């Protein structure tokens, strides 16, 4: 099963991606997580990406596309994958399509998690993330079992630097101008499915599973 997750910042892509990846046994590939790991390790990629991310802007297409192609070329993606936060521009979407078709493959679904702007600020400012495994929490809507600690790996959870209000607004504007056009792009290819991301986390997951079907081995 080859899936891309679309949706504005704070829609719940990372939250749902963890559950989808477990249920359907496909790797969860988040470009945001890849960049953040490189930033924390201060690699050349991380140093370059940080300049853009801290301002709420996109990392340049060429850089991002190369990283995703490398990652999709790894063996664990043979059975499928779940892309979270990629593509984010029409150019990235075209590059993905070309890459897959060169391997005789195509996407199964572009899944949009639709959340209106009003919900987003509260979600972003209350978000805490695990710097080690990328898990996402919310102080009100999805707190960890032990305050301040990741449920999955025990690491202290932190607030993301780009979750301050002014940067969130910039990220939303970038989403509207550069990523929103992908909705029509995938609609025109008959690949778009939409779930409403305003319900509780487990209810959103249920809607996603209804769309993706019951095959847990990624053979769809
Ligand atoms: P990225 O890390 O992808 O950030 P994003 O797309 O802005 O999305 P978020 O991770 O902020 O939100 P999410 O949808 O994952 O929500 P979450 O599940 O955490 O990218 C960061 C930056 O990297 C970009 O700005 C860009 O600079 C760069 N970048 C990344 N990919 C790129 C690309 N392809 N090209 C160029 N640049 C790229 O949930 C949010 C909060 O809400 C959490 O606290 C969660 O617990 C809570 N929550 C989730 N679901 C619910 C629910 N149903 N009800 C209540 N609360 C909920
Ligand atoms: Mg995320
Ligand atoms: Zn963790």
From TrEMBL:
Binding positions for AMP per the UniProt entry: 31, 36, 57-59, 85-88, 92, 160, 171
Classification via PANTHER family: NUCLEOTIDE KINASE
Enzyme class, broadest EC rank: transferase
Matching Pfam families: ADK (PF00406), ADK_lid (PF05191)
UniProt domain Adenylate kinase active site lid: residue ranges: 127-162
Stretches the record annotates as LID: 126-163
Assembly with partners or alone: Monomer.
Domain notes: Consists of three domains, a large central CORE domain and two small peripheral domains, NMPbind and LID, which undergo movements during catalysis. The LID domain closes over the site of phosphoryl transfer upon ATP binding. Assembling and dissambling the active center during each catalytic cycle provides an effective means to prevent ATP hydrolysis. Some bacteria have evolved a zinc-coordinating structure that stabilizes the LID domain.
Entry binding sites for Zn(2+): 130, 133, 150, 153
HAMAP family on file: Adenylate_kinase_Adk (MF_00235)
Pathway: Purine metabolism; AMP biosynthesis via salvage pathway; AMP from ADP: step 1/1
E.C. code: 2.7.4.3
Positions of ATP binding: 10-15, 127, 136-137, 199
NCBIfam families: adk, PRK00279.1-2, PRK00279.1-3, PRK14527.1
Catalysed reactions, as listed in the record: AMP + ATP = 2 ADP
Molecular function per GO: AMP kinase activity
Keywords of the record: ATP-binding, Cytoplasm, Kinase, Metal-binding, Nucleotide biosynthesis, Nucleotide-binding, Transferase, Zinc
Family stated for the protein in its record: Belongs to the adenylate kinase family.
Protein name per UniProt: Adenylate kinase
Region of interest called NMP, as start-end residue ranges on this chain: 30-59
Organism: Clostridium simiarum
Location(s), subcellular: Cytoplasm
Domain of life the protein comes from: Bacteria
CDD domains for the chain: ADK
Task of the protein: Catalyzes the reversible transfer of the terminal phosphate group between ATP and AMP. Plays an important role in cellular energy homeostasis and in adenine nucleotide metabolism.
Upper lineage: Bacteria, Bacillati, Bacillota, Clostridia, Eubacteriales
């Amino acid at each position: 099963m080859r899936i891309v997750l679309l949706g504005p910042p704070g829609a719940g892509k990372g939250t749902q991606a963890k559950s989808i990846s477990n249920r359907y046994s496909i790797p969860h590939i988040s470009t945001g997580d890849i960049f953040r790991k490189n930033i924390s390790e201060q690699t050349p990629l991380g140093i370059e990406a940080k300049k853009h991310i801290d301002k709420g802007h996109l990392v340049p297409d060429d850089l991002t596309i190369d990283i995703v192609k490398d990652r999709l070329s790894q063996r664990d993606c043979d059975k499928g994958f779940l892309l979270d936060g990629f593509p984010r521009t029409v150019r990235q979407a075209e590059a993905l399509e070309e890459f897959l078709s060169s391997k005789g493959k195509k996407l199964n679904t572009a899944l949009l998690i639709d959340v209106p702007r009003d919900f987003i600020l509260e979600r972003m400012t209350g978000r805490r993330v695990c710097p080690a495994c990328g898990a996402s929490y919310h102080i009100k809507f999805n707190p960890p079992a032990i305050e301040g600690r990741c449920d999955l790996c025990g690491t202290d959870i932190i607030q993301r630097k780009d979750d301050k209000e002014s940067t969130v607004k910039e990220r939303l504007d970038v989403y509207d101008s550069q990523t929103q056009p992908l909705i029509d792009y995938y609609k025109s290819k008959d690949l778009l499915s939409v779930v409403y991301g305003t319900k509780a986390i487990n209810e959103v997951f249920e809607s996603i599973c209804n769309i993706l079907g019951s095959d847990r081995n990624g053979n769809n």
